[in-house]
Amino acid sequence: MVKDANSFRGERGLTLIEVLIVVFIISIILAILVPNYSKSTEKAQEKLCFATEKMVEAQMELYRIDVGEEIASTEDLYKLVERGYLKELPVCPAHGEYRIEGKSLFCSKHGHYSAPGAADDHTGGP
Description:
Blueprint: H1 16-67, H2 77-82, E1 98-101, E2 104-107
Antiparallel strand pairs: 1-2
């Protein structure tokens, strides 16, 4: 059955204050959740960056064993792609730049990964 306009007069709707309270509660919940989401995103990007570093360093070592030549500079990373050790040049998920320092890959945003308790000096890492 379809109700006409006069049949809604006895029904009560939400007041403006009730609507404002609901909006206020929702905004508080969002204010709590959004920073936590961004922190977890940053942590995930950092872990992915360090995993990429370890994978590329393993490919650099494999290249050294196979070819007998060190990857000594950032430009040498192209050799890993050309010879099939990598599908493409590594890219930091947080838009950092990768470069070679010594025998290690270093990210300008996250530093260099080293295992917990390692004596290696680094500017980033879990």
